[in-house]
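Structure ticket #2291
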Amino acid sequence: MNSISALLAERPHLFSEAKVPLSRGDAQRMAALVSAVERVVALPPYRERVLADAPEIARHAPPSLGVFYGYDFHLMPQGPKLIEINTNAGGGLLAARRFGREDVEQAYADMFRAECPALKTLAIVDEAPTQQYLYPEFLLFQELFARHGISAVICAPEDLRFRDGKLWHCETKLDLVYNRLTDFSLEAANSAALRRAYLEGAAIVTPHPRGYALYANKRNLTLLSDDALLASWGVDTETRCVLAETVPRTELVSGGKAEDLWARRKGLFFKPATGFGAKAAYRGDKMTKRVFEETLAGDTIAQALVPPAVIEVEVDGALTELKADIRCYAYRGKIQYIVARLWQGQTTNFRTPGGGFAEVIVS
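Resolution: structure written out below.
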């Protein structure tokens, strides 16, 4: 643990001392949204529509459901609004350990057992893992797995080998890969062994490309916020009401709508459909014409602007306003854990004094 403590000391803005209040009603609305998304994703017309535009690998249906689905919300006076869905949401174990949630840690261990009941060996895989900002979480997972009789290595994708119909790290045959890569479709050359093992069922890979395509591609928000389309697919009224109340209207950006989008930009938030970590994401009222024109050439969505909530946090003896969002970690359509993230600036970060992951108090 000393090495983890030292690494955390090098990341002074990873955790906030603030406590973020969340009403029980808003927590229930978030849970209802997660369930509603599950019901829509299960529909054949939704899957056909999404997978038709996805990479070929997304059509492969693995036996696992995928771990660490993350639903990010902004809180508004009228209730929570879904900003995006992630399929490799990080920070859940770090926050659970920091805020003393042993029950959540146990739920995470149970989740991996559910993905692979005979789980004995796994690899936590990311690009240059020791250089990742959340590397301390990888070490916490390694420790958690060890407590449950599971041997875990932390490695880069190029450290894996596919041979004899199995996936290996050195001389260890792997049952599962906890995939923290942002190579969501496993297209990179150094993901070749992992990709083959996934497609041939040699090891459980979780999260996986199919989960990303069905949930996390931000193009999907255009479908989840289109009530007429959902009705044509036979989505029930209750589910549609939950989605209409919680998912901001989202549309695809195209050159044909350039003039209209530019005129409405102050009420929109632009982000890449397959982006992550808030890269190339812009509030419309902060965009220059040059940046706007660049978004027209990319695979971009425009979402109705939903500003994050603002809370006051004491920093160095003075009250400071920080922006806040709420992240729900979910598995099999149920929320496991809720945390907040606090920051200053245009998008979430872990560089703000007084900011970082914060404990949520539901009441």
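Closing remark: The first helix runs from residue 2 to 9.
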